[in-house]
Amino acid sequence: MKNWLEELFKVKKPIIAMCHLQPMPNDPNYDEKGGMKKVIEMARNDLLALQEGGVDGVMFSNEFSLPYLTKVETITVAAMARIIGELKDDIKVPYGVNCLWDPVASLDLAAVTDAKFIREIISGVYASDFGLWNTNPGATARHRKHIGAKDVKMLYNIVPEAAKYLADRDIVQIAKTTEFNNDPDAICVSGLTAGSETDTQVLSLVKGAVKKTPVLCNTGCNKDNIVRQLSVADGAVCATTFKVDGIFENPVDVNRVKEFMDVVKEFRKTL
Known about the structure:
Blueprint: H1 4-9, E1 15-20, H2 35-53, E2 57-61, H3 74-87, E3 95-98, H4 103-113, E4 117-120, E5 126-128, E6 131-133, H5 137-146, E7 153-157, E8 163-165, H6 171-182, E9 186-189, H7 200-209, E10 215-217, H8 226-230, E11 235-238, H9 254-268
Parallel strand pairs: 1-2, 1-11, 2-3, 3-4, 4-7, 7-9, 9-10, 10-11
Antiparallel strand pairs: 5-6, 5-8
């Protein structure tokens, strides 16, 4: 398997840290008094802490735009583009984007900000907290080509948080057909919600089901379970564990990042 993750991040089993953006204009919890200036400064603080802590990459997402839309509004994409543009000189690692939960918007954002990858729900049909959740992977793949973003990697989340696949299919079947039909650049396996531990057994089943696709542990990694998860997965996407006291809503704690990455670096020496 040619692992583009290692080529991009220059390490085995990279850790991609989420840079969670605060509510933006038109989000229900947007701080109008603080405005975009506050959103940008909080993003900058988290980005710098993640990089100082030693993560291998970052992914910018509108994590606090709850409740999420399956078709993201233009103002959110514009706001995210402004934030990344303002932070561009501070970004020192490879980065991606995630407009929750809209793969087309994510691709558009990646194309204009030079992001290397997106993560989204790109295939499947789900019953979720956000309603009936349908996708159109063929249209998404064609959109990537149409906008000249063919080099933007697409990370398929096949176990979306707060949702259940509508068809009566097990995760092995889903992983196999997702790889065959869609040629994903990576497959992400998640827990129930952001910060919820991913089931290592499910992760292992997915890893065993695919032939060529890297598999990422997508939620719930911490310094106590990351060696176990990376023993199966090709990398991990991490966020909550890096926050102050490990609480989703809190800012990034650089010391927690360093402690986590120290464990990862020691594990890599065994590979």
